[in-house]
Each structure stands twice: as C-alpha cells, then as structure tokens.
Specification:
The chain has about 90 residues and is α+β, with helices and mostly antiparallel strands. It contains two helices and three strands; from the N terminus they run αβββα. It has one domain. The radius of gyration is 15 Å and the shape is globular.
C-alpha cells in the first residue's frame, strides 16, 4: 500500500489549489537497485519529509480506490530504474 506523508497530506488539504506550492525533491542518483529508493521532500512552510518505496510508483502501476492522485516524475528515460536494468550500455 502506498501512502502520503502526513505533513504533505495536511498541506494539500489546506491548499487544494496548490497556491504558493514550492517544493524540492532530493534523492539518490539514478541506479539499478529496484528495491531501494531514498529521498527527501522539502516544502516551504512545512517540515522536511522522507521518501521511500512506500511513496514510489512503478511504471505501469494501477491506482485503485482513489479518485485522484498527484505525482512527480523523478527518473525518466534512460535514467529510469527499468531502463538501467535492461543491460544496454549508452
């Protein structure tokens, strides 16, 4: 089960239009380890939040029992974990 960090959830409830939303994500450099994700979300006006696999959705994931979701692409293209595990050398 995936979860939203409670501080982020509280912020989004109090700012449903994303007014003045400023955030940074600091995370590991792209790597092949699909069993590990380590990052931090820094948002203005709230405390820093740790990010891990419980907040990570894989390509092709299907969300159920939810009407909407907010997401951020962290790794894409040749830097995505799935592509790094394909064995190609670019």
């Amino acid at each position: 089960m995936k979860e939203v960090p409670k501080y982020v959830f509280k912020y989004l409830l109090s700012n449903p239009n994303f007014d003045n939303l400023t955030a940074n994500i600091i995370c590991d450099l792209p790597n092949k380890n699909i069993h590990h994700f380590n990052g931090r979300l820094q948002m203005k006006f709230t405390q820093e939040v740790s990010l891990g696999l419980r907040q990570f959705l894989w390509r092709g994931s299907t969300l159920s029992t939810t009407k909407w979701a907010i997401g951020v692409v962290v790794y894409s293209g040749m830097e995505s974990k799935i592509m790094l595990n394909q064995g190609f050398n670019y």
